[in-house]
Amino acid sequence: MASSYIGTMSVTEWQEVCTHLFGLAIEGGETDFVMDMMPILMQYAAFCDVMCEMLMSVCSNHILYGDTRAIPEFIGSIICGNWPKDLNKAVNSINPVLFITMSIVKGWILVINEDNSLYYTPKSVKRNGANDTDNGQSAQQQEGRNSPVVVEASESRHGSEDIKDDESSISTQAEPSEEDIAALNRCCMALYVLCEKTQRSLWLKWPELCDEIYDAIRPAITHNKHVEP
Fold first, then answer.
1. Which one has a higher pLDDT value, 171 or 220?
2. Cystine design at 152: which of 39, 41, 144, 209 (Cβ 3.0–4.6 Å)?
3. What pTM was estimated for this model as a whole?
4. Where's the DUF7627 domain (predicted)?
5. What distance lies between CA 227 and its chain's CA centroid?
6. How far from 104 is each of 7, 77, 109, 152, 194, CA to CA, in Å?
7. In the chain, which ranges are continuous DSSP H helix?
């Protein structure tokens, strides 16, 4: 009976459900409970659509306006969650929630890389080791969704080895506004909190993502004057 009712829920009702789940996760400290519920509810397409829209909206507010709730921690729980095998790929047709969450993190990385380009031109680095094939294609290889901060990362990854700060390596892009610099620092802090939350599990599940985070954060710390210490 309950399952039959859930299947007939309206978009407004799903919005109420997702709002409560977000509240439990980012305000109530009940992330584990929310992650237990997520695979059960994802059989309903309306839930997936509403949850993805709310993830984009909440994460955009976090970066653009400084929402101080535990949003990066929730993002980390989704990325490193113990998803069932049939949902354990960051592919839109398989797990849209995981897909859009990965796209959000790729967006944070892209914001940092774009600002880093004001101060240096990175050299490409090819890393050896594990890849993310067991978890499916990464979000940057999928069709992204337009959002101020939820964007696809470039398909070509850039390393940060042998970074030079001479005049020939400095970009001629215009200086960003104060709002852009604030958003940049929130992206850096969001990635820091994400890594602090997930720690070793992030590297085990998504080694290439860890490489991309490192390749963005290292020059941000060493070369980017917009990044606050």
1. 220
2. 144
3. 0.77
4. 7-227
5. 19
6. 28, 14, 9, 8, 12
7. 2-6, 11-26, 31-41, 45-65, 71-79, 96-116, 178-198, 200-205, 207-222
User: What is the rounded end-to-end Cα distance, in angstroms, of the chain?
Assistant: 56
- Residue environment code for 40-57, b if the CB has 16+ CB neighbours within 10 A, otherwise e: ebbebebbbebbbbbbbe
Give the SS3 label for residue 106. helix
Domain coordinates in residue numbering, the chain = 2-222
For 192, the token pair is 């820091």
User: Tokens for 61?
Assistant: 């507010």
As a whole number of angstroms, the distance between CA 18 and CA 165 comes to: 47
Q: Decide if 100 contacts 56 (C-beta within 8 A).
A: yes
Q: What is the spatial distance between Cα 101 and Cα 143, in angstroms, rounded to a whole number?
A: 13
Q: Are 187 and 150 in contact (CB under 8 A)?
A: no
Query: What tokens were used for 171?
Result: 């970009």
Alpha-carbon distance 149 to 62, whole Å?
10
Place of tokens 């080895």: 161
Of residues 212, 156, 50, 92, the one with CA closest to residue 58: 50
Higher pLDDT: 175 or 29? It is 29
What single-letter DSSP state applies at residue 54? H
Contact 213, 93 (CB under 8 A): no
Report the length, in residues, of the chain. Answer: 229
Q: Which of 194, 229, 163 is nearest to 73 (CA)?
A: 194
Residue 30, pLDDT above cutoff 70: yes
